[in-house]
Amino acid sequence: MKVDLTVAAIPAYLGAMGAEYLWQRSHPVAPGTRAGDYQLADTVASLTMGLGSLVAPYVTKKLVDPVTPTVGRYGGRLLALGAATALLTTVGDVVRRRLRDGGLPDPQTVPAEVRTVQEELAEVRQGPAVAPEHRAPVVPVLRRAHAGLAVTAVASTALVVSTTWAAMTSGKRLFGRSPLDLGTGAWAWGAAILGWDFLYYWNHRASHESRWLWAVHVVHHSSEHYNLSTALRQPVAEGITLSVPYGLLALAGVRPRLIEQARAVNLIYQFWIHTEAIRRLGWFERVFNTPSHHRVHHGSNRQYLDRNHGSILIIWDRLFGTFEEEDEPVVYGLTTNVDSFNPVTIATHEWVDIAEDVASAPTWRDRWSYLLRGPGWSSAARA
């Protein structure tokens, strides 16, 4: 029987949270002055998201496998849906531009005498003009339909790409094509854990630099508190995203089962660094990720944004220019907080924002930019 180490560690998680809570009780501070203190609604939300993240892969697989091209029976239909809605959206773009460029200027921008002549000519050619208040409300309806088509086109195409990519780069598939097999010894374990840690750095970094990936990862950053329960506030939509495939380790001869175990080791290590109870750890901080380093990562302070992406090792951040020391009090949460403890709102708020931005975008370039470029670009574009 296969044992998921992250599930087996749940009693230890809960025991550690209890110990942290008792430490907080024995080191009291003024209410609201320590962000690490447990708050009931916040903790319940984190635990709920943690349970959801355990169930989500099985639910996602049931939903996504049937619409995965080359694998599922409905994959071709999803491709057709994406193509059809993209075509209709493009037609809508053309019509909207023609109406915009070919119509009369706004009345307030045209001198009165010119507007009088224009109206007289229009009446001669087409009959009496219909007052705006008497026109059928066709334009708003078409605008909403066009927006819906754009969102459907982007969403279905993104789903096709993500599911196809996941199927093509799975560990089982790539291991079957590799001439290498490192076995299950110490070297294999070392390669699996170190390799996973390196790929995790790049995937974690990408999750902060692409809005599509951020929509999945933002769940973990949504709490304005920072304690061990925050570690359990995990994403539930990882099955519909893109990543540097951990299946690459299989090409290097790491067995798929070891890859899964390396993932578990990675997640278990990250649990203990979500605390304010541990301050600095001396020499250990030079090589390994620590509570101090990870507090920076969860900060919404300008200097802390998109820093310290490492999991077990912090050397990747030092090597690739994303390291930042903790030198000012950390303000936890998002630059614009969710202001909700509802797990559904926490999990979906960024997806809703993306859909609204795609719906209002005037061009394909803007639509895909709202999905693929960074959260900062989206905020600037909206402004």
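Second entry:
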Amino acid sequence: MPDISKYFDYAATTPVHPDVVNAMSPYFSECFGNPSSAHRWGQDAFTAVEEARESLSKHFHTNPENICFTGSSTESNNTVLNHFVMSYWNENRKPGHLIISPLEHSAVGQTAQHLHEAGFCVLDYLPVNHHGIVNPDDLSRMIRKDTVLVSVIYGNNEIGSVNPIPDLGNICKTRNVPFHTDATQFAAHQLVDLQKLPVDFISIAAHKCYGPKGIGALISNSKINIMPLIFGGRQEKAQRAGTHNVPYIVGMAKAYALLEAECDNRIHAEKRHRDRIFEQISTKIPDVVITGHPTNRLSNHTSFAFRNVDGLSLLALLDQSGFAVSIGSACRSTSIKGQQQLRNIGLDNEWTNGGLRITVGAFTTDDAVDELTETLARYISFLRKNTR
């Protein structure tokens, strides 16, 4: 097995916490009933789902009925965008106005583009600064009478910057425009209180937070009946058809309960390793820029652009040395096209091909950080000498 201390891709996914595994285990083979069944086996599973919903509602400070379980945050994002765009289209038979940032995860960006190309909405992109952060004043100017939804990512998955979601949400609230944020990365590290945060919907996933893959949620801050994306059943108040994934739902609730208990300690450790990486790479490697905001960013996230370096070659060399890093989102990390986000913050081709994301987590050590930065410096020097 690889050395887990050399795993530096926690923004892609995390190992499942042992306590989460233990919480999930009975629902694979002991309490295995279908929650929609009326008999004892089914009702025991139903109870587990509702207890998990209650646990998550307390974590996010919302009502249990405002939590809709999905298969992923990608599905959650698709669901909320399709709901508002298609509801307006069905009622008015003309496209509504959708606003997003150019640095959204593809689960929002590609979904919005698809709806736009199909003629169901007019799509506008908020400007971002060189850190990839949205200016609330721009949002105030761009909202129209026919704006059906604003969706802005909370913590960026590729460059780590954190957007001013409270300010953006207050603008939308004042203008009576629904506001959604993809909080997949942010909520995996920070506590989110929906009683204080002026958003209508957030998307989350378990596997960024030491929970299982294949389970997410769309959480609302208001009582809106969502148009289903998937049909064929009455689960989740007829908003998401399909048999409940009981073990994974239980696992997600446990993962977020552990986050609440350990949040301060996790953030302290993540920031310490994060800042160690920033310091060492800035010192050891020339022609490098930090991408995203240097401090207003996810606690476990570092990202860089190295001038005149091929990111795919660098990724392969680091992998051969046992290190797991990424050149961008895990959803497209094998393609250099994933560096579009670097272009959107003003970098040109001599920089964008050398983008790298290094994210830390539970098994990161000082020794592994030191070895990674030394190895990285050596490989970048090698690539620059041999590709001129």
